[in-house]
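Why does this matter for the project? Reviewers at the last site visit asked to see concrete outputs rather than summary tables. In response, this paragraph embeds two records directly. Each consists of the residue sequence and, immediately after it, the corresponding structure tokens. Nothing has been edited or filtered.
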Amino acid sequence: MSVIIVGSVALDTIEAGGKKVKEVLGGSAVYASVASSFLSKTSIISAAGKDFPEKYINMFKKHRIDVSGLQIADGKTFRWKGKYSCDFNNAVTLHTKLNVFKNFKPIIQNKNGGYLLLANIDPDIQFQALKNLCNIKLVALDTMNLWIKTKIKKLKNLFKLTDILFVNEEEAKQFTGKKNIIAAAKALSETGPAIIIIKRGEYGSFLFKKNEMFFVPSYPVEKVTDTTGAGDTFAGAFISYVESEKNLSSPVLKHAMFYAAVMASFNIESFSISRLSNLTKKEISARLYSLKKITELSHEK
């Protein structure tokens, strides 16, 4: 088995916390695949331009990420420029240039098997990737407010084919019209996905499965540098944990939530994937232990 991730590869220019970085590695498939690579054999399906730096290809290879599905097309790589306010909760998009990603059509080399993560991109591309694969063990999907606003019919069709859905709280309420997070999760579960994960940024994440509900807090990070890609990191880490365990039991899902929260916490400590790509398993284990420890109930009076 393996994790197959379909999403974007981009060069980001970001302003956050009084600092600015120019054309650093970004994109939903990038964050998700690097996070996934610590536990699972991972393949990335995306597109970049001829200007895409070789050092980033080498980074994928360092993490043993299969890049045979990364198309290098004539033209420029997708660019995104954004700016965060002091609370880091929402980015203001200053400009988006799709470039070669505008004509991206996912080409799947190995059409069989694996756990598929349709990272946050245009639902038309997500659907195209899904129909080109067979014998997929599990389908997970991430989306955003833009697609809910502009392509809700396509999303509804995709949700029918999805096992795990990742959305943030605002998106869950936007899609369902519900004002309560629990009511929104129930409404989303009726559209197809058996498992709904609602991300709430610094306030943690909820997992809903039938009549079960589980909450995990975010790991408390002392200094936040950049929250770009945190949700993508969470999704990639979650799917890799599930793939490594090969089942969707409640204990596995709970541990996957903790693992995903920890990986996302590392991501926000740097711009781009600088922190994430240089992690050690010892650092991950230590932070995972800490997060589980601080959530234990005390029986002391």
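We now turn to the second protein, recorded in exactly the same manner.
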Amino acid sequence: MLWLTAALLLLAALWLMGRRLRAANHTDWGSPWLNHLDGLNRLFCRHYHRLRHDEIPLPEYGPALLVSNHVSGLDALLLIAAARRPLRFMMATEEYQRFGLTWLFRAVGCIPVSRERNPESALREALRALEAGEVVALFPHGRIQLDDDPQRPLKGGVQKLAEKSGAAIYPVRVHGVRGLGRTLPAVWLRSRARIISYAPLRRDAHTDCLQRLAAVLNGRTMV
């Protein structure tokens, strides 16, 4: 009877865990296991990394471009936890092919970007996602960029996508990450994370959007 009691306790614990994950999940990723994973990530970011965030004013439906500064490997998890819609991240191919994680990146619709081989193919895939009404998320610095690093210009892909799709650009800034400049270690170093949202850039503002985005993402001004 001891094994039966242990089995029932385990089943009860799994049921309670599943119930809590479902309650924490606020985004429909199209499959139950991804929705449970979304709930787990939200709990992880909210309680372990003490995430506080503004409401990201993404539209309820239709295409949108979510752009952020990039300070660590934790950033994408924080953005997913702060958003009410699934995010399709554009990410470097070498990160997409990281051992043991490619299956997950593929499952959540990440778009690999090769810095050396035909980056235009990634832009075409991102444009198709926008035309299908999805949210594409990207870090336009192209790599980790801290506030005290020498400033580099933003990649032009975000402006091309905005112009071709007509999607608005929604800038946010990540603060309070403890593992600045790190990738995997930043996920486990406990933070007091904060995400600040700014007013979206609309189509009529795209002529100077890279300069305005740079000012926001580098912490110099607001949109």
